[in-house]
Amino acid sequence: MLKRFFITGTDTSVGKTVVSRALLQALSSGGKSVAGYKPVAKGSKETPEGMRNKDALVLQSVSSLELPYEAINPIALSEEESSVAHSCPINYTLLSNGLASLSDKVDHVVVEGTGGWRSLMNDLRPLSEWVVQEQLPVLMVVGIQEGCINHALLTAQAVANDGLPLIGWVANRINPGLAHYAEIIDVLGKKLPAPLIGELPYLPRAEQRELGQYIRLSMLGSVLAVDRIMA
Predict the structure, then answer these.
(1) How far is Cα 163 from Cα 52, in angstroms, rounded to an integer?
(2) Which one has a higher pLDDT value, 127 or 81?
(3) Is position 223 within any domain?
């Protein structure tokens, strides 16, 4: 059984967190135990409990087990620390150990990335290098907006060039007034080398909703049944 997935996006703010939430809810409703994982979270805020990130808290809220925050988000960077101008090392061993620990506890771990596929960490390395090291299959979130076809095709190409399988993509309607939505979905369906596994409509406060019904796990049926897939 394929245990781990990496969620990337065509850009920042395209809906990786709500899609991660939807996938976790869909897997959970199918009787699987799940956990969300946000290895590196930028823009975190200081709280009485320590640094906290709103996206990581969403993932924590839909995980099957009651897990400490640090198990979901081992590296939480403040707004200041999130700038690439703020140089600091990233402990990739910590990220790998955290992922391995979660993988031992649940059936599936949904790993949410930071920004897009080539978004840089504070050490000026893209997180995708760690994803390649971990050999994680990739699901891509496409925020449906002007220019998204170009961004989606470039992201899919970059994932393939890195030797990882793109196992599916999800359309997230981030602009309810966008014309030609159906045409964009049709073009992406024809050009992307992976199946469309879900469409999320525009929903206010989507991160607080039940979203599992928008994910078609049947499109991942053969993928879920294997231990490892090749690009």
Answers:
(1) 33
(2) 127
(3) no
